[in-house]
């Protein structure tokens, strides 16, 4: 069988926003003759939930090449949504089960022809039964970017995942704090930290800021706007730049500048030239692993920029200044300390994505 990688993800490889799955797929070129990336969980409903894949809607349901990767945005009439509530769980699980059984020749053909299949956390595990049935010899990797509890994924997806973990060849987790979630899986579980794209971060850049000092936030995962409502008022001499969050800014002061989602490369100067980066995560179940996995805080560390974050996301890395969410005094103190810390030499203990791919694919052989 030709060495072909298939990636199933809730992201699209062509998206402006970049996550670890994008960088790993790019680095996988060293191990596979073909790479295919199928984006799932997209439908007409996606127009109403701020899905960033809307910009790619014209490319839905057709194969299109992007930087050597064959991409397919699988669009359906509707897609399952976790409406929450234990009483509704049996009913709300039905669309997930229907999606897992849905006729999908494109998906099935890609599964059958792949020597390695990488399933990212999120909705993708709903297809694990199907994958193992159609491709019993393929090397199957569960690429755990986040715990399903933290993402708020429907419990039926978690049940399918747990039922299939013994048939997975490798569970990759990016943080030691996530290992306990797979202690009884019966599968090989390996901590492979997130990396950085050093070539991207080392590009020549110019500052996007005015003469005023700036603190920036990038991304929308578990975004908590209350940090800015406190910090912007306490530090009127600082500009606070929020990139890629769709939250309302009606309550923000004039020194809070909202930016729409922008290409990943365009966000890097905002981090590099910031006086500090803030990762304003809200509390969520099992979210402490973010102290090891946050890409934006890794990028800040590489630039020598101090980071502000909730105390549960500080972890062991130096030059992170923790605050208690919704505690004004704590937010003010963490921001003050980060602004006083200044820049230091970049961190040297951060790996690149090529190293991550080497850990994942150096044994990219069929069963």
Give a brief description.
With 367 residues, the chain is α/β, with parallel strands linked by helices.
Summarize this structure as a short list of keywords or feature phrases.
globular; six-stranded parallel beta sheet; eight-stranded mixed beta sheet
Tell me what the structure shows.
With 367 residues, the chain is an alpha/beta fold. The chain has helices at 20-27, 89-92, 94-101, 105-112, 128-134, 148-151, 155-164, 198-201, 226-234, 264-272, 290-293, 295-303, 328-341, 353-361; strands spanning 4-9, 34-43, 64-66, 69-76, 116-120, 139-143, 170-173, 189-191, 214-218, 239-243, 256-259, 276-278, 307-310, 320-323. It has an eight-stranded mixed β-sheet, sandwiched between helices. The protein is globular. The chain has two domains: 4-195 and 353-361, Rossmann fold (3-Layer(aba) Sandwich); 199-341, Rossmann fold (3-Layer(aba) Sandwich), CATH 3.40.50. Helix 9 links the parallel strand 9 and strand 10 (239-243).
């Amino acid at each position: 069988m030709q060495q072909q990688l298939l990636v199933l993800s809730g992201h699209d490889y062509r998206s402006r926003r970049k996550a670890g799955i994008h960088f790993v797929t790019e680095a996988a070129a060293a191990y596979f003759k073909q790479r295919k990336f199928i984006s799932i969980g997209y439908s007409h409903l996606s127009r109403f939930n701020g899905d960033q894949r809307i910009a790619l809607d014209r490319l839905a349901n057709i194969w299109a090449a992007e930087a050597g990767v064959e991409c397919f945005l699988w669009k359906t009439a509707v897609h399952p949504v976790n409406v929450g509530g234990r009483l509704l769980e049996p009913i709300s699980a039905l669309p997930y089960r229907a999606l897992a059984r849905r006729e999908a020749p494109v998906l099935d053909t890609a599964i059958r022809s792949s020597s390695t299949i990488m399933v990212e956390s999120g909705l993708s595990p709903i297809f694990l039964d199907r994958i193992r049935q159609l491709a019993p010899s393929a090397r199957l990797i569960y690429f755990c970017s986040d715990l399903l509890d933290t993402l708020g994924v429907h419990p039926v997806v978690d049940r399918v995942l747990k039922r299939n973990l013994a048939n997975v060849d490798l569970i990759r987790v990016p943080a030691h704090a996530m290992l306990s979630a797979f202690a009884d899986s019966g599968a090989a579980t390996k901590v492979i930290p997130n990396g950085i794209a050093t070539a991207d971060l080392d590009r020549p850049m110019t500052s996007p800021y005015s003469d005023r000092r700036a603190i920036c936030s990038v991304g929308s995962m578990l975004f908590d706007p209350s940090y800015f409502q406190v910090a912007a008022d306490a530090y009127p001499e600082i500009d606070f730049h929020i990139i890629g969050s769709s939250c309302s800014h009606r309550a923000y002061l004039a020194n809070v500048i909202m930016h729409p989602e922008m290409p990943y490369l365009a966000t890097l100067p905002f981090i590099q030239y910031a006086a500090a980066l803030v990762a304003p995560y809200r509390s969520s179940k099992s979210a402490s692993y973010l102290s090891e996995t946050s890409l934006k805080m890794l990028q800040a560390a590489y630039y020598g920029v101090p980071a502000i974050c909730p105390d549960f996301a500080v972890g062991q890395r130096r030059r992170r200044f923790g605050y208690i969410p919704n505690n004004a005094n704590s937010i003010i103190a963490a921001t003050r300390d980060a602004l006083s810390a200044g820049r230091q030499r970049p961190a040297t203990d951060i790996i690149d994505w090529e190293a991550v791919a080497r850990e994942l694919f150096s044994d990219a052989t069929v069963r």
